[in-house]
Amino acid sequence: MSEKAAHTRDKGKTRRRLLAAARELFYGDGIHATGVSAVAERAGVTKMTLYAHFPSKGDLVTAYLEDSDRRWQELLEEKLSGHEDPLDKLLAVCDAYREYFTTREMRGCAFVNCAAEFPDPDHPARRVIQQHKAGVRERLRGLAAEAGAENPATLAERLFVVLEGAYVAGALEVDRGVLDRSCAFFADLVQSAVRNQTRS
Amino acid sequence: MSEKAAHTRDKGKTRRRLLAAARELFYGDGIHATGVSAVAERAGVTKMTLYAHFPSKGDLVTAYLEDSDRRWQELLEEKLSGHEDPLDKLLAVCDAYREYFTTREMRGCAFVNCAAEFPDPDHPARRVIQQHKAGVRERLRGLAAEAGAENPATLAERLFVVLEGAYVAGALEVDRGVLDRSCAFFADLVQSAVRNQTRS
DNA sequence: GCATTTATATATACCGGTAAGTATAATTAA
DNA sequence: TTAATTATACTTACCGGTATATATAAATGC
């Protein structure tokens, strides 16, 4: 049905198509290597239409990042909702990471890659990146506390470092197993941090 | 003495100047965002001279990566030579990482950043990146074995993941402390992997 | 010691391609 | 009628890379 229906008057739909195209191309090929014309073409619209939705390429980039963050959060919360025990919830973060990683091509973290392309710390895109990473860390900290870790802040930061490291290592190595082994690493850290807790 | 001596006939010196310029600009601003003219200008030479040393920008990029890897290895081996005990050597790898990181601006790993800009796994630059990371992992594995870790391969991979994670986390956060805290993390991992060893 | 050759670098202009972004007019669907 | 989109052409700017002709320092030959 939605085959030849490129002539939809639904503005939201066009915007979603543009964001989907931006996601594929920006993430897959890099941002500087992707022209706005290519994004428009992938979305099946004209460059003029793209500029009707996003005033500049920079705005499209930040919208792409915000959209990616939103999608990540949805995936994470869905994963978390499948568990009751706070310890299981904590472990589920790692699963979400792995799933998010393996779904997308082995291109590493979209936010890290974007930061590599935009060195200026004051660039608007960096704000979104910062917020995304801060969100992950904050979530980990809360779950670590709920799980009863001795030092939730330390555990959360270490888990965060492991996740980031596994992400880049998995993107660079042909060997995909590092992802799975890092999940075991993650679980070991959680276990040893919660084992010697003061049981309530 | 070497002030106004831009008219040196030393080919090696010009090449070094070009590589230094490439390092600063490629690393600091990104590769796609840096034009060959900018590199030549920074090196104080003409674009023609650049192309007399490197047949294309791609070749300059791979030379830049090879040079970076060589510099990293020199720093690492110098750090390692300051210790006798294999356990201290292992810990020194983390110090080398931190020093290498803080010397250069907070822009993360040059190899990871380059991989973000060159998605094609068959791109020549990716070969250098792969070799660099494989070298780090191999070194860690050897030192872990010498230090008498129970499972050197597992420890080495985990340490590698921590180093990579700390690198990207430090580059994204304004907080520089994550680097130092990750070194403590690194040390903890080493300690607990060596503690329960079968003493020879 | 002096001229010549050769390697290295300069200066400058150019080419084809592509990028981001704009202008304008026609078209489509509600 | 009106908002959304198309189609096409355009501007300005920069990119990687080349062409051409010149200048200079050092090694070479006599």
Q: What is the fold's blueprint, element by element?
A:
2 copies of one chain form a homodimer.
Chain A: H1 11-29, H2 36-43, H3 47-53, H4 57-80, H5 86-103, H6 110-117, H7 124-146, H8 152-172, H9 177-195
Helix pairs in contact in A: 1-2, 1-4, 4-5, 4-7, 5-7, 5-9, 6-7, 7-8, 8-9
The first copy, chain A, binds a DNA duplex (30 and 30 nucleotides) through helix 3.
Detailed description of the structure:
The structure is a homodimer of 200-residue chains. By secondary structure, the first copy, chain A, is mainly α. Chain A contains nine helices and no strands. Chain A has helices spanning 11-29, 36-43, 47-53, 57-80, 86-103, 110-117, 124-146, 152-172, 177-195. Mean pLDDT of chain A is 91; it is low at 1-8. Chain A binds chain B through residues 28-30, 32-33, 107-109, 111-113, 115-119, 121, 129-130, 133, 154, 157-158, 160-166, 168-169, 171-174, 178, 181-182, 185, and chain B through 28-30, 32-33, 107-109, 111-113, 115-119, 121, 129-130, 133, 154, 157-158, 160-169, 171-174, 178, 181-182, 185. Chain A binds a DNA duplex (30 and 30 nucleotides) through residues 6-11, 14, 35-37, 45-49, 51-52, 56-57.
Largest sheet of chain A: none
Q: Helix- and strand-based class of chain A?
A: mainly alpha
The percent range for strand residues of chain A is under 5%
Please report the two chains with the greatest interface, counting residues with C-beta closer than 8 angstroms to the partner's C-beta. A-B, 40 and 41 residues
Task: Tell me the quaternary state.
Answer: homodimer
**Rg over CA atoms of chain A:** 19 Å
| Amino-to-carboxy terminus distance of chain A | 57 Å
Helix amount of chain A? over 70%
* Order of helix and strand elements from N to C terminus of chain A: HHHHHHHHH
Overall strand count of chain A: 0
Q: What is the overall silhouette of chain A?
A: elongated
How many H/I helical runs of chain A?
Answer: 9
Point out poorly predicted stretches of chain A: 1-8
Q: What's the rounded overall pLDDT mean of chain A? A: 91
